[in-house]
Amino acid sequence: MSASWASMCRSYGGHQICIISIERSAKNYWEYKAAMSVDGVKQPIAIYNCRDRLKLQDKKSVQFSDNDPGYLICSFFKNHQ
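RESULT FIELD:
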């Protein structure tokens, strides 16, 4: 992604979500590696699998929860591929 995507923020699910950095996988175009902040609190880097709605973080794979920031990443970037 270009530098123009840095620190993109949106209100989502009652929270302020900011994407600090994001990279799309060259091998799996439906996966994004992202650093985010939620309400100003930086979250650990995670890999978001938009095809299966999974988040890989700290070597653990979990389904997106309700209002998960992963939905924001997947819905926004779905239209920008």
